[in-house]
């Protein structure tokens, strides 16, 4: 949508209907990723592409029908003996394309989405692509960091889907999710497409050590854009950190200050300090803890190292309120021993901090697992209680 919304808005503003075709799922060697879009305007003009030319003709015909009938359609295109060179994919891939009519009536939030995209505000768009009730196809939720707007026909379903979409937006991921009719996760009968328009959140790992190598692999898997920074060039090499997006040789506090001054850190940024060397740690943590907007700041070390670090930070006039933002020793108590297990404990603490988790065993809980859903159910019970 990002690439075609500028061409989509004129029809929307003038009360016309256009058709938006979006790749919502791919298999094998599909030519375009999920999220690729093609617009067919009310006058029949085409903008964008869903396959690089393989199936655009068929999608164009379907889009015109969608404009005419107002009914969305989900179609799968793939290779076969009959249609490989007609409407199929000669590359052997398979893709699902959802085509929806777009107008003020079907998509009233479009102008606000365009404003957020223009301002680089992270935003997610949820679209119902499969539903037992045809009238629900094409319904949308709009997801932002501060909440969700829209209605999927059921308060619980809206809440569950919105909760999951917020997680995908935080990770910068675009994908489809299946549900049961009442929002049962991993159920069947209902499927939504979540398009996340946000860069991947950043993780800055300071210290080119074995624990950093394991952490970068796991953080990359979880959707972070990972930077490893160390002042020692002999250790800070790309070959040692294949999971990192970049490896930087620089003094940690100087690199952090440069990134902050350039506006490249935000409320989703995670900072992990793994050097446990005061000459690197203390100047860096002074800056990171003073920031106050970062998602997470953690530092590795024993309890003795932690106490010494706090003494040094206090001597550097770091206030207690800033020290309270420090996760040290880093990670949750999982009994971790290896670098890989330690990486799991660190990312578990990051995840818990992001979504308000407690870190306790789920088997000991009797409330809904997801915090937001627990609050939702509590409010629902309160609202339905007799006066």
UniProtKB/TrEMBL annotation:
Pfam families: XdhC_C, XdhC_CoxI. Residues 12-78, 118-180 form the XdhC- CoxI domain. Residues 203-350 form the XdhC Rossmann domain. InterPro entries: MoCofactor_Util/Proc, XdhC_CoxI, XdhC_Rossmann_dom. This is XdhC family protein. It comes from Cryobacterium breve.
């Amino acid at each position: 949508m990002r690439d075609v919304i500028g061409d989509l808005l004129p029809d929307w503003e003038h009360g016309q209907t256009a058709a938006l075709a979006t790749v919502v799922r791919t298999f094998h060697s599909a030519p375009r990723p999920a999220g690729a879009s093609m617009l067919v305007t009310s006058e029949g003009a085409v903008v964008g592409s869903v396959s690089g030319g393989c199936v655009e003709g068929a999608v164009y015909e379907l889009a015109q029908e969608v404009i005419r009938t107002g009914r969305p359609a989900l179609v799968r295109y793939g290779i076969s003996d009959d249609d490989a060179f007609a409407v199929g994919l000669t590359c052997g891939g398979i893709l699902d394309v959802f085509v929806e009519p777009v107008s003020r009536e079907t998509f009233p939030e479009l102008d606000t989405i365009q404003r957020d995209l223009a301002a680089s505000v992270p935003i997610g768009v949820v679209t119902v692509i499969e539903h037992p009730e045809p009238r629900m196809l094409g319904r949308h939720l709009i997801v932002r960091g501060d909440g969700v707007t829209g209605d999927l026909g059921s308060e619980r379903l809206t809440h569950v889907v919105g909760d999951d979409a917020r997680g995908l937006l935080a990770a910068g991921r675009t994908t489809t999710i299946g549900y049961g009719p009442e929002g049962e996760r991993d159920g069947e009968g209902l499927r939504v497409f979540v398009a996340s328009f946000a860069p991947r959140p950043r993780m800055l790992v300071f210290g080119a050590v074995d624990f950093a190598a394991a952490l970068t692999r796991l953080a990359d898997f979880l959707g972070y854009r990972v930077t490893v920074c160390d002042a020692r060039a002999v250790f800070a090499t790309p070959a040692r950190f294949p999971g990192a997006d970049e490896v930087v040789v620089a003094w940690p506090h100087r690199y952090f200050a440069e990134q902050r001054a350039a506006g490249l850190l935000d409320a989703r940024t995670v900072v992990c300090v793994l050097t446990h060397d005061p000459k690197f740690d203390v100047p860096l943590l002074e800056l990171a803890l003073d920031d106050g907007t970062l998602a997470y700041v953690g530092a590795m070390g024993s309890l003795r190292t932690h106490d010494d670090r706090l003494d040094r930070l206090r001597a550097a006039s770091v206030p207690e309120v800033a020290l309270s933002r420090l996760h040290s020793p880093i990670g949750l108590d999982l009994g971790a021993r290896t670098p890989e297990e330690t990486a799991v404990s660190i990312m578990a603490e990051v995840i818990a901090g992001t979504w308000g988790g407690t870190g306790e065993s789920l088997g000991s809980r009797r409330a809904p697992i997801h915090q937001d859903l627990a609050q939702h159910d509590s409010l629902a019970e309160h609202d339905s209680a007799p006066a």
